[in-house]
From TrEMBL:
The lineage of its organism: Bacteria, Bacillati, Actinomycetota, Actinomycetes, Streptosporangiales. Pathway: Ketone degradation; acetoin degradation. The keyword Nucleus does not apply. It comes from Nonomuraea spiralis. This is Acetoin utilization protein AcuC. It holds the Pfam family Hist_deacetyl. Keywords: Acetoin catabolism. Residues 22-313 form the Histone deacetylase domain.
Length: 387
């Protein structure tokens, strides 16, 4: 399906590091790239570097006063609580501006490659920092690279950009930036804000002309329910919106093993969602697809495998789930982490779901979540909310 896929990578992307006890450990992306390389996945893509985002690029989303504040923290490593740096979630560290600007630059490089036609698909697995606000760090995120990629695309002349966020946490920063901009459709599928940070992402948050879409799923939702919700909401809205380009955020903290959230997806369910987004990129956006990483805090068992699947999916050469992980990579994991590595690229699940077109059950909390979203936004797009 894909013609050209590009992976934006620089070893310096691992410098985005809040310290040894912080959940967002850079080892997760290091192990991802190592696994993708060991499996030959990187042989199927163009691997290119990137430059840090400049101040003018960062200012497409972030206040210049905030950028200067981050630079000040970067020099001294001292907290600036007005900028949201120096908290438990967002510790201050020397070099924070440079590390954050490089991640932003990687997502901008992905956007540039796709917009200019150098690649059909592009991915920055170190990106997806979707909680950062225009004037404050939030939720482990300093600069909002998905929002910056979208803002850059709009500046180049894009008229309609769709953003789909499958992180377990609401994509609040991206939604906030484009809440009143009908050129950008933001769709976030996440655990209910009643039980998880950041406490936003209710179905009634609909933005300009219904272009903010939120599917708030109950804790405990697994593959079948999540995929049912995805297919009940995302494909019809993307088809109706008719984007010129699709941007996706692939936080994998919806996995059952993730320590910070309460959904129950498997590697296989997440992989199925990535394949569906790939198909939708071709069906609705002419194949133009920009992907980022995101959350994901099971650093060895989950993140490297699922984001290797993501890269493989973008390349058009998906990895068979039954594929063993290479012994060389397993040894690398043992040396770097002291943990036992996963042995295959699957959790052994076969994700299946019932399509909402067969009707819904008002007693089912997942179906209630689906219908709350459809009732809130489908009429604003001229779509019938009923299955």
């Amino acid at each position: 399906m894909s013609r050209t896929a590009r992976v934006i990578w620089d070893d310096a992307l691992t410098s985005y590091n809040f310290g040894p006890s912080h959940p967002l450990a850079p080892i997760r992306v290091e192990l991802t790239i190592a696994l993708a390389r060991a499996l030959g996945v990187l042989d199927e893509v163009e691997l290119t570097g990137c430059a840090p985002a400049g101040d003018d690029e960062l200012a497409l989303v972030h206040d210049r006063g905030y950028i200067e504040a981050v630079k000040g923290v970067s020099v001294a490593g001292a907290p600036d609580l007005r900028a949201g740096l120096g908290t438990t979630d967002n510790p201050a560290f020397k070099g924070v501006h440079e590390a954050s600007a490089l991640i932003a630059g990687a997502s901008l490089a992905a956007a540039r490659a796709v917009w200019e036609g150098a690649a059909e698909h592009a991915v920055n697995v170190a990106g997806g920092l979707h909680h950062a606000m225009p004037a404050a760090a939030s939720g482990f995120c300093v600069y909002n690279d998905p929002a910056l990629a979208i803002a850059w695309l709009l500046e180049q002349g894009a008229r309609r950009v769709a953003y789909v966020d499958v992180d377990v946490h609401h994509g609040d920063g991206v939604q906030a930036v484009f809440y009143d901009d009908p050129r950008v459709l933001t769709i976030s599928l996440h655990e209910s804000p009643r039980t998880l940070f950041p406490g936003t992402g209710f179905p009634h948050e609909t933005g300009a002309e219904g272009t903010a879409v939120n599917v708030a799923l109950p804790a405990g939702c697994g593959d079948s329910g999540w995929l049912r919700a995805f297919h009940a909401v995302v494909p019809p809205l993307l088809r109706e919106f008719d984007p010129e380009i699709l941007v996706t955020q692939h936080g994998c903290d919806s996995h059952a093993l993730d320590p910070l959230a309460n959904l129950m997806l498997s590697i296989d369910g997440q992989r199925t969602a990535y394949a569906a987004l790939h198909e939708l990129a071709h069906e609705t956006a002419g194949g133009r697809w920009i992907a980022t990483g995101g959350g994901g805090y099971e650093l060895v068992q989950v993140v490297p495998r699922i984001w290797t699947h993501l890269i493989a999916e973008l390349s058009g050469h998906p990895v068979d789930p039954a594929t063993p992980t290479p012994e060389g990579w397993r040894q690398y994991v043992r040396e770097r982490t002291g943990e036992a590595p996963p042995l295959t690229m699957t959790d052994g699940r076969n994700p299946e779901f019932r399509d909402i077109s067969g009707g819904y059950d008002p007693a089912d909390p997942i179906d209630r979540a689906i219908m709350a979203t459809r009732n809130a936004v489908f009429p604003l797009h001229g779509l019938d909310p009923m299955p």
